[in-house]
Amino acid sequence: MSILSGKKVLLGITAGIAAYKSATLVRLLIKAGAQVKVVMTPAAKNFITPLTLSTLSKNEVHSSFTNEEDENASWNNHVELALWADVFLIAPATANTMAKMANGVCDNLLLAIYLSAKCSVYYAPAMDLDMYEHPTTQKSFDALAKANNVQIPAAHGELASGLVGQGRMAEPEEILTFIEDHLSAGLPLSGKKVLITAGPTYEAIDPVRFIGNHSSGRMGFELAKVAASYGAQVILITGPTHFNTQQLAIREVHVTSAAQMYKAVHKEFEACHIAIFAAAVADYRPKFVADEKIKKHDSTLTIDLEKTQDILASIGAIKKQQFLVGFALETQNELENAKKKLVKKNLDLIVLNSLRDKGAGFKTRTNKVTLITAKNEVIPFKVKDKSAVAQDIIAHIIQNTHA
Ligand code: CTP
């Protein structure tokens, strides 16, 4: 889950050409789960229409102290808007607005809100390179830093004037990532990379058939969302499922077969701090994949199978300081088998699901797990929704790593 999920974001738009990117910014904020309200300076309306922004944000856009078009002109309460926001993002921030912010000038609604805001203020400068480098602009930056406002640095590149240099507003995606990272700093998994495998694998028999299993992928996706909500950068390597996360903190890598998952995991593992293997990987695959659809002939059909690579065991064999977590789905001698797997695959933690427990296993919304640690601690949990199970697992990992 993005750290912006559920947060109230007030987007302030000032009169720079980069204002045309504000529409994308609103969409990205909404996609991250934020509630968005927009306030514009009057001149910003020359660059993007309030209609576009109110449609995308699903909220009225404000640009003056009163709603002029309304005969019974109502007052736009700047204090109320300022206190509503958890985050005030001014993007683009022009040299003019920044100079006013730096000096307490309050000649429009956006500036009045700025002076009343108690929340975190971020601003993304956008201007020509000479304006950017001008000592008075640099003075504004210093004054805003002193006021604890956070600058989202402008990029170096081609500017609307045709000049090339610093001053181009950060791209909307970069602005979002910047704010997410900034808000996440201090969370228990911030700065940590977490690799998670999820879902089933499909092993082809011929061009239209495969051997698969009933894993829905839900457990792995819930783990990814919880890890991201604690500030982690997640790489989610998933077999075929109908889930998707669409969160910037979660990078999904889609694979089909065990061999593809093996390759993807080995490509990503080294840079990771924590790896959780929740995928239900096929243990066997057809030895030969038919080029054409197999026709029915005889009353029986035999397909020769060969072992797939055990991805988790192969990672256990090469892991260094990473915290490695596996899952075990057992139907008998559960604890004993799970402990054996933990040792054999060189894990720090194994999550045992017993198919004998009601509410556990594949395709259910709930799960009942027991955590077994490398120190042989056995920690049983009750039947819970898979998102709550994911919370328990991630909480244990946080407590037991130096994350
Ligand atoms: N796993 C894996 N690659 C495989 C098989 C399993 O990465 N080819 C991982 C699973 O994601 C899980 C753990 O290994 O985290 C345990 O898988 P499981 O199938 O329960 O155990 P196996 O070691 O395959 O033993 P068995 O099937 O005999 O119980």
Summarize the structure.
The protein is of the alpha/beta class and 403 residues long. It contains 13 helices and 22 strands.
Explain what you see.
The structure is a single chain. The protein is α/β, with parallel strands linked by helices and 403 residues long. The chain has helices at residues 22-31, 50-57, 78-84, 95-103, 109-116, 129-133, 135-146, 172-184, 218-229, 258-268, 311-318, 334-344, 386-399, and strands at residues 8-13, 35-40, 61-62, 87-93, 120-125, 150-151, 155-158, 164-168, 193-198, 203-206, 209-211, 233-238, 250-254, 274-277, 284-286, 305-307, 323-330, 349-354, 366-367, 369-373, 378-380, 384-385. Helices cover 32% and strands 24% of the residues. It is elongated, with a radius of gyration of 27 Å. Helix 4 (95-103) crosses helix 7 and helix 9 packs across helix 13 (386-399). The two termini are 19 Å apart. It is built from 13 helices and 22 strands. The chain has an 8-stranded mixed sheet, with helices on both faces. It has a 6-stranded parallel sheet with strand order 3-2-1-4-5-6, sandwiched between helices. It has 2 domains: 8-184, Flavin prenyltransferase-like (Rossmann fold, 3-Layer(aba) Sandwich), CATH 3.40.50.1950; 193-290 and 306-401, 3-Layer(aba) Sandwich (Rossmann fold), CATH 3.40.50. It binds cytidine-5'-triphosphate.
Secondary structure layout plus pairing:
Elements: E1 8-13, H1 22-31, E2 35-40, H2 50-57, E3 61-62, H3 78-84, E4 87-93, H4 95-103, H5 109-116, E5 120-125, H6 129-133, H7 135-146, E6 150-151, E7 155-158, E8 164-168, H8 172-184, E9 193-198, E10 203-206, E11 209-211, H9 218-229, E12 233-238, E13 250-254, H10 258-268, E14 274-277, E15 284-286, E16 305-307, H11 311-318, E17 323-330, H12 334-344, E18 349-354, E19 366-367, E20 369-373, E21 378-380, E22 384-385, H13 386-399
Helix pairs in contact: 1-2, 1-8, 3-5, 4-7, 9-13
This protein binds cytidine-5'-triphosphate.
